[in-house]
Structures are given as structure tokens and as C-alpha cells.
Design a protein that fits this description.
Elements: E1 5-14, E2 17-27, E3 31-35, H1 42-50, E4 57-62, E5 65-67, H2 71-74, E6 78-81, H3 93-103, H4 108-121, H5 137-149, E7 155-159, H6 167-182, E8 187-191, H7 195-201, E9 204-209, E10 212-218, H8 219-223, E11 230-234, H9 238-247, E12 251-256, E13 259-263, H10 271-280, E14 284-289, H11 294-304
Parallel strand pairs: 3-8, 3-9, 6-7, 7-8
Antiparallel strand pairs: 1-2, 1-4, 4-5, 9-10, 11-13, 11-14, 12-13
Length: 305
């Protein structure tokens, strides 16, 4: 498929407020990051794709289904992790997953087998036998993830999936999402406020602001600078390092508290950088190819809306 979702002229209003305004989208296979400030229309867009919100206008295609006419059939092909908790007290974790499998049409024994399989994949462990109301926030996120995957859908939509996870748990969660795309051939839409998560695993980025699509492009294109260069990470004194390099005839620009962008050294030895580092007493921590800041791209898009 060239795209998994194509939407045209999608609008949705709540009273006088436009939640979605003439949205045009073409989402490619892989992992797509859906970004936007609070109230930007992310949740409305997700619920519209799922057929949980009735749109005012618009047409499209999701997977191989006409949209919005075939949303009921489409939901069988989508796994959805909602932002809000959704569990039934008194059920064990494994029972909650099995219930979702049964609702998706799987026979009882196959539903139980699949439930244990995805519980293992989501690292639920022996906690699967505890009642869900005793789960921590992180455990409830894992449970919702397992519920979204149990019927083996080709498209998975995750709404703020790493909320409540500590840094180690978040990295493990992101690794599992990457495995879904790279090894299992799943398509993923990741709606989040955490730009680090998007940079880490996403192929394509969509930024919404005030119900409009401000940006829709690959992460590689968005991070590609207009002018080639390198990004030098220092432990401290980025400003002094940039000034010292400029005095030595090297084009340098401070891009953050610990990074300096160097231009004009393409293919040349980096000896002048190391020499300046020693003379100025500035410790170089890393050197990477220069990239645009996703944070700045996000802020510019939102401000321009």
C-alpha cells in the first residue's frame, strides 16, 4: 500500500467550535506520530477514524475500507489503546484481555491462547492473575496495549500510550511498538505529547493545531537542515565554544545549551575542532550529523496556525 489512510475535506464541529477543519491526510505505512497541543483535534480525529465520532463532512479510505461508510467493519481491523482507563473491576488482567478477544470474534480457547501470548509480549507477567483495579498506572497501560493487540489487527492506534511509565518502562514500551512495525508488519499511529518518543520510533509526523493539519512529512525530511553540517555536543560552555570557533574562522552557531552547529567543514578533517576544544578547555561529548530540531518544528507549526 502507498498509504494506509487517505482522508479528504474532513470537518467536525462541536457547537460553534471547529474540532477538525477541512482535514486532508495521507498516512503512509509504518509508524506515524500524531502531535498537537491540547485541543488541537487529535482525539477527535482518532475517534472519527474509528467511527466513534460522526463527522460533519469528508470522505476517505482506511486500509481497504471506504470511510466513513464502513467504519463498523473497519473496527475489526484496528487495535485501539485509549488515553482514558477502561477496565471492569473484579476481572483479572488475563480475563480482561480474553474478553476483548471474545468481543473480536475469537473462539473461547483461541481467545485465551492469544491473551496469554500478548500478555507475554506486553510484559504483564504474573500480574495477569491479579484483579485489574489493583494495577498501577503503568500496568494498566500494558493491559490496554495487550487488549489492543489480542485480535491481531493490521493497524494499531495508540493514544498517549507511555503515560505513567518510568523512563525504563517507556523505552521498553517503545521497543515493543517498533517490533510491531518492523517484525510483525503492523501500521501504528502514535498520538503523544512526548517528542522524544516520536523521534525514537516514528517514520512520519503529523502536527495538528486548531483542527488543521499544519505539518505532514517524514521525520527524515523534517530533521534535514537547509544547510549541511555537523552537531557538536559539549558538556558545558557551548556559547564560549561557538565564539572560539568563530574566532578561528569556523562557522559555528549555538543551537541549545549543549549543542553547537558547525557549517562549512563537509568532508574536511575535524582536527580544528579537537584543537579548539583543547585550547578552550571545552569537552566534546559527541559529534552527529546536523538535524533540525523537532521541538522547533512543532512550535513553529503551532504558532503559525
Amino acid at each position: 500500500m502507498n498509504s494506509i489512510i487517505e482522508l479528504a475535506h474532513v470537518s467536525k464541529r462541536y457547537g460553534t467550535r471547529a474540532a477538525l477543519h477541512d482535514v486532508e491526510l495521507n498516512i503512509p505505512p509504518g509508524i506515524t506520530g500524531l502531535l498537537g497541543p491540547n485541543g488541537s483535534g487529535k482525539s477527535t480525529l482518532i475517534k472519527a477514524i474509528l467511527g466513534l465520532v460522526k463527522i460533519d463532512s469528508g470522505t476517505g479510505r482506511v486500509l481497504d475500507f471506504k470511510w466513513p461508510e464502513q467504519t463498523r467493519a473497519l473496527r475489526d481491523k484496528i487495535g485501539y489503546l485509549p488515553e482514558d482507563d477502561c477496565y471492569i473491576q473484579g476481572l483479572q488482567g488475563i480475563e480482561s484481555i480474553q474478553m476483548m478477544a471474545r468481543l473480536s470474534g475469537l473462539p473461547k480457547l483461541e481467545a485465551l491462547r492469544r491473551s496469554h501470548e500478548v500478555a507475554d509480549f506486553c510484559d504483564i507477567g504474573q500480574e495477569r492473575y491479579r484483579n485489574v483495579e489493583t494495577y498501577s498506572t503503568g500496568m494498566r497501560q500494558k493491559l490496554k496495549f495487550a487488549q489492543a493487540l489480542v485480535h491481531d489487527p493490521p493497524l494499531v492506534i495508540l493514544d498517549e500510550p507511555t503515560t505513567g511509565l518510568d523512563p525504563a518502562q517507556r523505552d521498553e514500551f517503545l521497543d515493543r511498538i517498533a517490533v510491531l512495525a518492523m517484525e510483525k508488519g503492523k501500521h501504528v499511529i502514535l498520538s503523544t505529547h512526548i517528542l522524544h518518543d516520536v523521534r525514537r520510533i516514528c517514520d512520519h509526523i503529523i502536527i495538528l493545531a486548531e483542527g488543521r493539519v499544519c505539518v505532514s512529512d517524514s521525520l527524515a525530511n523534517l530533521q534535514r537542515p537547509i544547510e549541511a553540517g555537523i552537531q557538536v555536543g559539549v558538556i558545558s560552555d557551548a556559547e564560549r565554544f561557538a565564539v572560539g570557533l568563530t574566532e578561528r574562522g569556523i562557522r559555528a552557531e549555538v543551537t541549545s545549551a549543549q549543542y553547537v552547529k558547525i557549517s562549512g567543514l563537509d568532508g574536511q578533517p575535524l582536527d580544528p575542532l579537537w584543537k579548539a576544544s583543547v585550547e578552550l578547555g571545552v569537552v566534546i561529548q559527541r559529534i552527529d550529523e546536523a538535524r533540525n530540531s523537532l521541538e522547533q518544528t512543532f512550535l513553529d507549526a503551532v504558532r503559525a496556525s
